Amino acid sequence: MYTTDLRSAEEKRKAARAKVVEDPEKLAEFQARIDRDEFIEPKDWMPEAYRRTLIRQISQHAHSEIVGMLPEGNWITRAPTFRRKLILLAKVQDEAGHGLYLYSAAETLGVARDELVDQLHEGKAKYSTIFNYPTLTWADIGAIGWLVDGAAITNQIPLCRCSYGPYARAMQRICKEESFHQRQGYEAMAALMRGSKEQRRMAQDAMNRWWWPALMMFGPPDSVSIHSAQSMKWKIKRYSNDELRQRFIDATVPQAHAIGLEVPDPELKFNEETGHWETGPIDWDEFWAVVAGDGPCNYDRMDARRSAHDEGAWVREAAAAHAAKRAGTRAA
Amino acid sequence: MSNENWQLYEIFIRSAKGLSHRHVGSVHAADPEMAIEAARDIYTRRNEGVSIWAVPSSAITASDPDAAEELFEPAKSKIYRHPTFYEIPEGVENM
């Protein structure tokens, strides 16, 4: 998902026009370093396209973490028990932390965090499509932890070995923390499945709504994923969208069955020969519509982000005033 | 108002295991004390550290990666600095 280029055709054309010509010798040297599995560090020479790809990908990833707080934050005040509330608070706080590790990694490429945040608020930056779906019931919180964070982990583990050092290190931290997110979600789903008929119905309903969007998180199928080849060559991406998606499906289907959930796919079957679960077709029109802004919550998410930023202005002012006062005391 | 004029601080954390402070990332903050507070929230949510250093990023002088070859050359040519360089008679122990 985070390795997927979500720009529109027009945005890509515009970026292509701004192409710079690189010294072929330096390019070859750079590729040789990558091929030797060396890490590229902030001050090292890198092709402009590598830098741009990383800035886009890391910031898109950071925005996803930040926007990802919104659907879950929606349920903090309505968590069914105090235990669940503490867990959800800790998880949402982690997402903020993940966003900040990633902005920090992006800044090593020479872009300012403010600039990236502005791009998000102006609607110029993309974030994972999954966060444009609503969280209608408590079961959605379980489904998000289990499926959305589960898909994220599948995607992020290979990124821990990506060629850009600061990004790889941020991902290692994130992956360590992410596994709590997935387990708490699965536990919440399992608890509902052990509950009343109504609770089981609620869990299944959440499963029905989140399953397909979770599969879409891995991005378009390999057959149309044009930008993957270059990212693979640069070792920013290690596995294709379809490979990662299959890994997630194979891991998740038995988890669903273990707690009595049905996978909402009449065509789902286990292929004895390959040892893989095979799904029916994914509705890519829905994916591209959500990318383009037509998801159920695109507008709400951006509105909430901008309000949070604007309404938090007084905190930034107070911090600046406090810093100035403290500096004055120190000087005196 | 924006926080675009806030200083960037590099954050170093020492774990409880007795190791040196290690670089973990950066934070933006209005002053050094607030940098420590932000770093506490961002980088030590799971008991990762017992001590935090916040250093203005602008205060760091880094070696030039393009000059790494010359910079580290003197170390490469002095293999006699390693114990494995020396031959010790067979049967001699504890050395």
Most residues in contact: chain pair: A-B, 28 and 25 residues
State which percent range the strand residues of chain B make up. 15-25%
Spans where pLDDT lies below 50 across 5 or more residues of chain B: none
- Which structural class should the secondary elements of chain B be placed in? alpha+beta
Total helix count of chain B?
2
How many H/I helices of chain A? 14
Helix content of chain B: 10-25%
The shape of chain A, in one word, is globular
CATH topology of the domain at 3-62 in chain B: Ubiquitin-like (UB roll)
Task: Please list the strands of the largest sheet of chain B in the order they lie side by side.
Answer: 2-1-3
State the CATH superfamily name of the domain at 3-62 in chain B.
Phenylacetic acid degradation B
Alpha-beta content class of chain A: mainly alpha
CATH 2nd-level architecture of the domain at 3-62 in chain B: Roll
Question: Shape of chain B from CA axes?
Answer: elongated
Element pattern of chain B in H and E: EEHEH
Question: What does the secondary structure layout of this molecule look like, with pairings?
Answer:
The complex is a heterodimer of chains A (332) and B (95).
Chain A: H1 9-17, H2 24-35, H3 48-67, H4 69-73, H5 82-107, H6 113-121, H7 138-156, H8 165-193, H9 197-216, H10 228-233, H11 241-258, E1 269-271, E2 276-278, H12 284-294, H13 298-311, H14 313-331
Antiparallel strand pairs in A: 1-2
Chain B: E1 7-14, E2 22-29, H1 32-43, E3 51-56, H2 68-76
Antiparallel strand pairs in B: 1-2, 1-3
Description of the structure:
The complex is a heterodimer of chains A (332) and B (95). Chain A is an all-alpha fold and 332 residues long. Chain A is built from 14 helices and 2 strands; from the N terminus they run αααααααααααββααα. Chain A has a two-stranded antiparallel sheet. The longest helix of chain A is centred in the middle third of the chain and has 29 residues, at 165-193. The mean pLDDT of chain A is 93. Chain B is an alpha+beta fold. Chain B has a domain at 3-62: Ubiquitin-like (UB roll). Helix content of chain B is 22%, strand content 23%. Chain B has 2 helices and 3 strands. In chain B, a hairpin with a 7-residue loop joins β1 and β2. Chain B starts with 6 loop residues before the first strand and ends in a 19-residue tail after the last helix. Chain A binds chain B through residues 41, 43-45, 90, 93-94, 97, 100-101, 104-105, 107, 112-114, 170, 173, 177, 313, 316-317, 319-320, 322-323, 326-327, and chain B through 1-4, 6, 8, 24-31, 33-34, 41-43, 45-46, 62, 64-66.
